[in-house]
Amino acid sequence: MLSIREKSFTRFLLFNLIMALVLIVGLMYITNKYFYSYEENIEKQIISDIAQIRNKEGVDIIGGTLYESDEEIQQVLNEVKSRTYLRFLSPSNYQISVLSTLVLVIFISYIFLFTINMLIISSHQRRYIKSVDNFIDSVIEQRFDIVLDESQEGITSKLNMRFNKMGNAINRNYNRVLEDNMNIKNTLADISHQIKTPLTSLSINNEILSESDELTEEQIEFIKINESQITRLVWLTDSLLKISKLDSNTVHFNKEEILALELVGDFKNILSRQLKAKDLKIQITGDFEMLINADYEWTKEALLNLVKNATEHAFTQTMITIDLVSNSSYKAIDVHNIGNNISLEELTRIFERFYKSKDNTNPDSIGIGLNLSKKIIESQGGTIAVSNEENGVKFSILFLNI
Fold it and tell me: What is the DSSP string of 255-323?
């Protein structure tokens, strides 16, 4: 069924076709009348001139017609007509001329109507494609504020109706996912609180016990182990809660232009115990003025996990290098260590949750830090990668310049 716009367009084409036919028929009529009238006038003039020149009796001219009373004059007239342009007005040549004119007019009319038709169709298509493109952009951006026109009839309105139904379905699913994610976030926060409360109590009790003067060396050692495990559980709970928030897209990143040097500048103090245990040093190289667009706290935690991993797998008495790289395409922070390379199998699994490499001898390592770092960086539009180097391993965080 045609829409109102399609019906109007059809009427427009029919009107132009009728007008073209009227013009063609009118042109044929005018051409026919003109040529025959012109030939008749020429013939009358020729007969009149011949009669005056010859000045013979018996030459009768009535209504421009030469009677056969004078065969000589008739012969002269025919000879004159055959030698002049009037021969081009013979019935056969005239018909050919009119037919050629008709074909030319029809061809020009067809080209004109076809061009107008294509321009109108192209204009309609561009407007429709633009409206659909805007609709798709709004859905991608999760705005759902554009509704396509369904008021008319025709195939485009049917497509618009289906697009609108699709947008409504996506909107409902999106809102449902947001609601589910918020519920997950609240549930995890409650669970975290319920776990942290007894852990805090255990930590306080452990501290009270450690203040006793009657403890044996073995009891003191057990208290230290308890405190270490309590700290580990608190960190694990916090990390799992953060990962769950990242998975459910309920984290709001406060992205801003920050100096990359500020992110890594105090890692020496934060990791002083780990560095001292293996006699490691940290050096920072590269572009000290480099700025990156990211959330300060979250990005710093991601980098800290990478540097902590580098210290765990570095050889003793070596250097951890943090290189700040800036160019026209991207900004990157590379963390190098000097140690064993990672096998190809482990390279593909190193960012998995709870994955620990075979040569990891740290009893406190859980295998969750690298996974958390990956989620933090990728949630901000960056990428994270790991690669083997000649004398160690390099972790890279990269943000494209947009």
Answer: EEEEEHHHHHTTHHHHTHHHHHHTT-EEEEEE-TT-EEEEEHHHHHHHHHHHHHHHHHTBPTT-EEEEE
Domain positions in the chain: 4-140, 178-247, 255-400
Among 92, 94, 71, 75, which Cα is nearest to 83's? 75
pLDDT digits (tens, 9 = 90+) for 163-187: 888 888 888 888 888 888 778 777 7
Q: What is the Cα–Cα distance from 284 to 265, expressed in whole angstroms?
A: 8
Whether residue 351 contacts residue 305, with contact meaning beta carbons closer than 8 Å, is answered with: no
CA distance 225 to 273: 17
pLDDT in tens, 125-137: 788 888 888 888 8
Which one-letter DSSP state was computed for residue 342? P
**Residue 286 pLDDT:** 93
pLDDT at 201: 84
CA distance 225 to 287: 42
Give the CB-side neighbour count of residue 77, counting CA atoms within 13 A. Answer: 23
Q: Which amino acid, residue 295? A: D
Residue 344, C-beta contacts closer than 8 angstroms, at least 6 positions apart: none
Q: Which residues of the chain have pLDDT under 50?
A: 1-2, 4, 56-68, 85-92
- Rounded Cα–Cα distance for residues 25 and 346 (Å): 86
What is the structure's pLDDT at 282? 92
Helices (H), 313-368: 344-349
Helix spans in 1-154 (H): 4-54, 71-83, 91-140
d(CA 380, CA 185): 19
- Identify the CA nearest to 347 among candidates 398, 301, 400, 389: 389
> How many angstroms separate the CA atoms of 91 and 97, rounded?
10
What was the pLDDT predicted at 166?
86
d(CA 66, CA 73) in angstroms, rounded, equals: 8
Phi, psi of 144 (to 5 degrees): 55, 35
Q: State the Cα–Cα distance between residues 155 and 242, nearest whole angstrom.
A: 49
User: What number does CATH give the domain 255-400?
Assistant: 3.30.565.10
Q: DSSP label at 340? A: P
